[in-house]
Amino acid sequence: MAFKIGLLGYGTVGTGTAEIILDPEGRNSLLQEIEIAKVGVRSLDQPRSPQLSTEVLTTDLEAIVNDPEIEIVVELLGGLEPARSLILQAIAKGKHIVTANKAVIARHGEEIFTAANQAEVYVLFEAAVGGGIPVIKPLKQSLGVNRIETVIGIINGTTNYILTQMTEEGADFEEVLAEAQQLGYAEADPTADVDGYDAADKIAILAAIAFNGRIKREDISCEGIRQINATDISYADDLGFVIKLLAIAKRGRSPIAKANADNDSLQVRVHPTLVSKDHPLANVNGVYNAILVEGDPLGQVMLFGPGAGKGATASAVVSDIVNIIGFLQTSNTTRKLDPMLKCPHDHFKQLTPIAEINTRFYARFLCQDVPGVIGHLGTSFGNHDVSLESVVQIGFRNNLAEIVVVTHNVQEGNFRKALEEIKSLASIDSIPSILRVL
Ligand code: HSE
């Protein structure tokens, strides 16, 4: 007997999903058990491939989530609504969910997983992070016995493509963004990607699984790449770094928080970062994604691959469908969920405020070329406990000396206080760039 699924959406990922299911030869044998019973689309007039029979296509999305014969609803609409409401309705009707929707999972995970656990249905979302890269299931299962210390990802292909092109062409952000939009690599409205929101949704999801607790999406500190320019990419290169948009989740608290914070806190942040050229993430270029996981006792594992695209994302969607079918075939009537696949936690993790995290910084200063200016910088940093790794006078720009500083690991709050003091120095003209260093 076939398992009936309903697809909400038949765009790029939806058609990719149908292509895999309708061509099972040489793939997992459970694909042959899937019947695409209904597909919800916006309009019936548009030609589609693979073509589906007219009885399968419908514009009535609610009919899919209410159809008693459909066991798995595959949400591929994207965006928050109506995706969220349809997922909740489908759960209420006892249907399992597969979704590629990182925004809904990151922002509405609490109500979705609470409802799913009560209804004893799965909500699987492998495609929501890293496209075709298996990362959700590996974190839940294969890596789950490790105490995870860090998850660091390049998990937005658009920004990785833009930064790679800027590095290779020596071009500035706006120029490369326009080129990426023409080539279809960047959306007409690039905000979610270039301002880091897409990566923040994804690291919220990864951190929740890796550190076993819910993450408040709004608590994630998030900076995008609009301010990155060819000058800093070139100076970073001279210093042995490349600039990448990293999403970072890291166990542990700041020394400030230690006295009274719960011992469960985490730092979760997204920002452009100088990455040493010999770091494994430094060579992840173009639209590719990678996620570096570090745990005890395993050490480091890096998952690398295509972070978006029709076939890659559909591969993750269909593997989730097959996982649920495997469960449905073997489960007894009590339908108790497999603890390795369900959402196992219901509490929120405490996130360390950005001012309390420890990190290294790169800062570029434009200064009067007068005796003692480097000393002034050093004194102000020293006043606030900021230890410097290097101070380099790179050259001149508009008759001003250009000085680049790289710090040791310092507390962000102290670094910001030092910058305030430095801004008030007569010899300092401006601070055009401040970036973090991995
Ligand atoms: N917009 C995303 C990216 C792909 O650029 O990586 C979908 O998650």
- Give the CA-based shape: elongated
The biggest beta sheet reads:
11 strands, mixed
Range of helix content: 25-40%
Summed up, the domain count is 3
Strand content: 25-35%
Bound molecules: L-homoserine
Superfamily at the CATH H level of the largest domain? Dihydrodipicolinate Reductase, domain 2
Any idea of the CATH topology of the largest domain? Dihydrodipicolinate Reductase, domain 2
Distance from N terminus to C terminus (CA atoms, Å) equals 53 Å
Series of H and E elements: EHEEHEHEHEHEHHHHEHEEEEHEHEEEHE
CATH architectural arrangement of the largest domain: 2-Layer Sandwich
CATH class of the largest domain: Alpha Beta
Tally of helical segments: 13
Average predicted confidence as pLDDT: 93
The value of Rg in angstroms is 24 Å
- Low-pLDDT residue intervals, each spanning 5 or more residues: none
- Number of beta-strand segments: 17
